[in-house]
Amino acid sequence: MQRKVLALSVRNALAGMLGICFIGGFMPVHAQDAPAPSTQDAQRTTDGKAVTDLNGVSVTGQLQSLFLSQSTKRDAVNTVDSVSAEEAGKFPDQNVADALQRVPGVSVNRSGGESNQITVRGFGPDFVNVLLNGRTMPTAASDRAFDFDVLPSEVIQQAVVQKTSTPDLEEGGIGGTVNIITARPFDFNGWHAAGSAAGVNDSINGGFANKTTPKVSGIIGNTNADHTFGWLASVVYYKRDHIEQSIDTLGWLQNQDFSRINPSYTNLSLPQTLQGQVINETRTRTSFNGAIDWKPLDDVTVKLDGLFSEYKVDSTYKAFGSYTNTGIIQNITPGANGTAQNFVMDQSGGMSNDYAEQANPRDAFNTQFGSHITWQIDPSMELDLDSAASGAWNKQSQGGYFVVLGTRNVGVNPTWTNNGDDHLGSYTGLLPSTDVNDLHAHVTNQGTQSPNVSDKILENQLHFGKSFLDGTLSRIDFGLSNSNRTKTEVTYNTPNSFGCAEYCGYVVDVPADAVNAQVFHAGNLVNGASPGFPRDWVSYDVNKLFAYLATPAAYNQLPNAAAFKAQLDANGGGFTSVPDPNTYSMIKERISSAYGMATLEGDGSMPWTLNVGMRYTKTNTTSYAYSVPIVGIAVNPNDPTNAIPTYGALSPISENGNYHEWLPSANFKLNLLDNVVFRAAASKTLTRPDLSNLAASASYSFRPQDQTVTRGNTQLKPYLSKNYDAGIEWYFNETSYTALNLFRKQVSNFSTLITTQTTLLGFPFLLTEPVNLNEATIKGAEFTFNYQFTKLPSPFDGLGVATNYTYVTSDATISQDKLANAGKFAVPGIGNSYNASLYYQKGPVEMRVAYNWRAKYLASIAGNQSQPTSVKDYGQLDLSASYKLNEHVSLFVDATNLTNENIYQYQVYDDRQSYAEANGRTFFLGVRASL
């Protein structure tokens, strides 16, 4: 009797929760889970550790990971690839994105010596929808692109890449959807625990650094004997000291007129600057993950989970730069396409040796707290309610700074030379870069480097499903969902940049002892990417510089000392940054969706499955900002490469946007033989515009030779894609198969950043804004071959290979009026890729050597100076190995970028080299234990 009362109470509570959700305006969707392998009988759990039986042989480690990933792919009705944990707390790679890049069709973007974002089938991070346990993950950046470096790999059980869409799959990823699935208590039996401790050694020179930092992780949990209650908790702490070297042009200036030198030189291109920098970083990741599984009744399951992750990057850099002043160029030699091959500046000192110091701290937090309730109404029907609150934020803008001291190149002729398509340009004829006794103040900004970002998502998902035992119709599913997202950002600046408005121009002498000036040894930057670039330059104490510039000894040298002192006093006597209303943006996005889906099956000699249905989604956005009119622009008399704006009164503004779409999909799977599967799929999908592109605000750059305005477009519509897929898979055994997949995506309503010429108060400006364009067709093929050489004689029967190659191409068109202003149109991210892994597992030994390569690709249609920016070919070799001391303890070593590869970029043409970056190698050496 009590059990019936309890059952009635739980069901009433569930019904009440559903009612509250709908009355409150939430329309909840089934949280996506990984496709369940049909080979579950081959898996068992011993002492809390998952073990797989392959032909009667028990395996763990990387073979188990391959088995689970292959089972997921084979049993899914749509096109799916995945990466699975080798055991609790042990993902195949130290970084989630590093593991995903071994999936066919997936390649990565890199930052700070590790992978941080992914591209799927040539579509960049903005086109990839990332979910955590079926729920949207917010981002601590300005766009929708998810940074995987905030997630510790140790809490991940499986990462599933959905390449073709189903109606129940949350819309948003034209490239694909990645669902990150964390471990659940019911995955284990009884008490279970695992942990690892490692030393991390990161060296820019490719050897070993003097300092080793820790990485520690642990997972513990307990599930009772009848699997009615279980809990699980994990914690990760990871610290890495990293040095990055780079050389940057900040883009190539376009349409430069040098008719004063030669009447035909009216449309030349030359680099904005040549700047080398050494970035010192301390990266610290701390995370906690907890989960509870509970069955209060036989037909009710409650799942609770929470994730907290903090990824902190303390970053400072020291740089030497030579900022181009086009007004003092006395001789220039153009090459093909108007690209400068050489130019010489006069001896006036209009270009300086710049000694820059910068801090751009990052402290990214990600949280998600969710509940999932399943009511098994009867053996064939279930009702699911999933609710989650997620957040991400990075509020370190106030801690940034960018300052420059400089020495004018008076009496010498700085000469720049283009070094072709293999190296960046280089300067000769500069004054020595090590003179600490000839320093002059220039840029003095606090804040400015990146915005404070806050991203909050509240979402509810409701799913009803019913299975049928007889007939062709196997299952029907229906779902509703609602999400409310608010993204806010604002950048901190010194008010009105008054420090730079007065000090920019090198008019104030700065004594060496006032700022503790000394010579910094940088070494050979990026292996000589810019031949002859200085290896030593002046460095100084930034805090002492700000303190000195706030004293009468400094500001009394200014032409307008009294006016500067008044601004300084109004700001509390210093350069402290405050929120800049010009940069404020808040975007609210509300999404409501519904779907219906049917699964049909047929038996016989060639069993088949058809999944077909429709999804409807409606999106409403509201963008809030401040309108800040420009009422005056004056060239800085002390610095002709800079201008000083005058702003009018602030006024709040808001703009609305909305759209809705019907998204049909169909996935067909046919078993031609017991081990041969044919697939075909057709669908319509969308990717929403970047939230930053929907901003109602505008930002300005005031440099007379390249003044810019960047603004959003609240009326942007989503990218829409018609997708067609076909593939065939041949499975040799549980860990070996080959597959060929073909895909074609016709993307309409394509949006990108377009730059046009405009004027503001009589000054020429480049206006960059996002617009919806015509269409782009992307097509390609993925080939996979994974094989374990079990037929070789011992000990070589432990060898195996995992290889795949992805070919992607695109054909894009754009209206002629846009072509005239913006040049050729292309799709960012498109590029071929392959990866090849040779692995070995036998007895106590596991080893894998993996090489990943990505062909050159367009990173941005409007990068620095609003120019298309491409990344050159990049390949990286990684190693992982472990030795099992006994059943519970093993030693391991991991190494990334063994070949010490560097990253290179160019703009439009190969001889417009724009950027080079070196990160060195990283080694992990540690011990792992499990119970």
Summarize the structure.
The chain has 931 residues and is mostly beta strands.
Question: Mean pLDDT, as a whole number?
Answer: 87
Number of distinct beta strands: 55
Q: Provide the structure class.
A: mainly beta
Q: Separation of termini?
A: 41 Å
Strand content: over 45%
Counted by DSSP, the helix tally is 8
Helix fraction, binned, reads under 10%
Written overview of the protein:
This protein is mainly beta. Helices cover 8% and strands 55% of the residues. The protein has 8 helices and 55 strands. It has a 22-stranded antiparallel β-barrel. A 5-stranded mixed beta sheet has the order 4-9-10-7-8. It has a 4-stranded antiparallel beta sheet with strand order 18-19-24-25, with no helix packed on it. A hairpin with a 5-residue loop joins strand 12 (213-223) and strand 13 (229-248).
